[in-house]
Design brief:
With 184 residues, this protein is of the alpha/beta class. It has a domain of 109 residues: Sandwich (Immunoglobulin-like), CATH 2.60.40. 20% of the residues lie in helices and 33% in strands. The protein has five helices and ten strands. The radius of gyration is 20 Å and the shape is globular.
């Protein structure tokens, strides 16, 4: 009887999604950066719905912290020989100014091509240097950034800034198609 109960429990647990997470292969993938990503964007595992889940699992996620001067700040690094931004997802609690400090720890030259209200901010990062870019993102949305050097972006050096917040009131909206929002 005990064997039958154990067998039935094993069958029940094997079909459970949470039990599958206990496999050693899955546990290796659940580092703190990946857990933060899944907690922030719980649907990243849905196939073909979000490119975010495929591109950013290794870079992780950070929440911008707002200073007394109302400027939000984050620090990003380029680890040696990885061609990623770490973290690669930046979450702003609302629209405004964001100062991004980037440390290039790689032996290669990189450029951070950052969005800023329709313009682009360019930050050149020679090997083993650091720099800062200040951008302004005036409304909620998803904003991409990357490194245009030698197809680095095509090889995974892409990033995303998620600006949270309420939608713009209808009377203040621009005459253009509706843009995808972080909560869509």
């Amino acid at each position: 009887m005990a064997r039958a109960t154990a067998f039935a429990a094993c069958l029940l647990l094997c079909g459970c999604e949470y039990f599958r997470l206990l496999r050693p292969k899955s546990l290796k993938q659940l580092n703190p950066r990946m857990v933060a990503l899944v907690n922030e964007l719980p649907e990243v595992d849905e196939p073909n719905k979000e490119i975010v889940g495929r591109l950013f699992a290794h870079g992780g996620l950070v929440h911008a912290e707002e200073g007394d001067d109302k400027v939000m700040r984050v620090t990003v690094r380029v680890p040696p020989d990885e061609l990623i931004w770490e973290p690669s997802i930046i979450v702003m609690p609302h629209a405004g100014d964001l100062e991004v400090e980037i440390h290039n720890q790689d032996a290669a030259f990189h450029i951070a091509l950052m969005p800023s209200n329709g313009e682009r901010e360019v930050l050149e990062l020679p090997n083993h240097t650091a720099g800062k870019a200040r951008i302004h993102l005036g409304e909620p949305g998803l904003y991409w950034f990357g490194c245009p050097v030698a197809n680095h972006a095509g090889r995974g050096m892409l990033g995303l800034v998620i600006v949270r917040g309420a939608q713009t009131p209808e009377q203040a909206q621009l005459d253009r198609p509706r843009q995808r929002r972080p909560d869509d």
